[in-house]
Amino acid sequence: MTDFPKLRLRRLRQTEALRALICETSLEVGDLIYPLFVGEGRGLRQEIASMSGIFRYSVDLLPQEVKEIAKLGIPAVLLFGIPEYKDEVGSQAYHPNGIVQQAVRAIKKAVPELIVITDVCLCEYISHGHCGIVVGDEIDNDKTLPLLAKTALSHAEAGADIVAPSDMMDGRVKVVRETLEEAGFHNTLILSYAAKYASVFFDPFRNAVESTPRFGDRRSYQMNPANWREALRAVEQNIAEGADMIMVKPTLAYLDVVRTVRDNFNCPLVAYNVSGEYAMVKAAAKHGWLDERQVILEILTAIKRAGADIIITYHAKEAARWLLPR
């Protein structure tokens, strides 16, 4: 090994130009996806209490919002719907004129080139808040699968480019892929929440979409935060079933999982910088404890460095403004 003083690593850090020249990880606007919450009604732009700066929009206000997103260079949005009506089978999730289906059509009309990704799950639409059909005290995996497939198909029919099953039921990618193929949607991509952990970092999101379970928790279907080898099995299964892209969620406490997945699979890898991670940064910045710009860009760069190709983040609009050339 070369020893000091022949080797002085600080030589490579002397100036901004040198640091940029040898930079190993690049963060670009094109790496980002912005989540959007869509609610019923008209003229709705309601800030989410647990997520400062993030809003629920009614469909009529979406065109203005997505035009701004596209102007910033952000290539894609991820849609979550908040319906007025919920029932035991989540029927509004797959209704042809459901809130997400309306939102997809409105976005595609306003900004056709924007990539529209739709969350495929029942938790926002089902009365008890779980991600699947409840039979007795159990979340019934197999009874849930046809409803997830119906939901994904209805999103594709509305014009979604990518459907993203987030429920963590076994076999859902296979059923969704078969349903899309049978209906002729051969080019609709599946982004699978392959390694989704049972995390407390999701709590602000559950407030945003009103999906906190009324009983129990989601640990019987979401992954144990203590496990990483299990993530490899889940990702492998999801790819085999037909996923085009896979996701690790959350991100900051799971960067080791992101790296492990990247090292073992060549599939496009998405990391979800989730609501709790966002809320912590916003709270600290509000109190002046952190430089908001620097910490956001550091976090997003770290996620890219860990191996993610794409980052879903509520910071996307802020980051885009900072990253765009002046």
Describe the 3D structure.
- With 326 residues, this protein is α/β, with parallel strands linked by helices.
- It has one domain (28-323): TIM Barrel, CATH 3.20.20.
- It is built from eleven helices and twelve strands.
- Strands 1-4-5-8-9-10-11-12 form an eight-stranded parallel beta barrel, surrounded by nine helices.
- A hairpin with a 7-residue loop joins β2 (45-47) and β3.
- The longest helix has 18 residues, at 141-158.
- The model has no long low-confidence stretch (mean pLDDT 92).
Relevant terms:
326 residues; alpha/beta; TIM Barrel; eight-stranded parallel beta barrel; two-stranded antiparallel ribbon; globular
Question: Can you give me a brief rundown of this structure?
Answer:
The chain has 326 residues and is α/β, with parallel strands linked by helices. It has helices at 16-21, 62-71, 99-110, 141-158, 172-182, 203-209, 229-241, 255-264, 275-286, 292-306, 316-323; strands spanning 32-39, 45-47, 55-58, 76-82, 115-120, 133-135, 138-140, 162-165, 189-196, 245-249, 269-273, 310-313.
List the helices and strands and how they pair.
Layout: H1 16-21, E1 32-39, E2 45-47, E3 55-58, H2 62-71, E4 76-82, H3 99-110, E5 115-120, E6 133-135, E7 138-140, H4 141-158, E8 162-165, H5 172-182, E9 189-196, H6 203-209, H7 229-241, E10 245-249, H8 255-264, E11 269-273, H9 275-286, H10 292-306, E12 310-313, H11 316-323
Parallel strand pairs: 1-3, 1-4, 1-12, 4-5, 5-8, 8-9, 9-10, 10-11, 11-12
Antiparallel strand pairs: 2-3, 6-7
Helix pairs in contact: 2-3, 3-4, 4-5
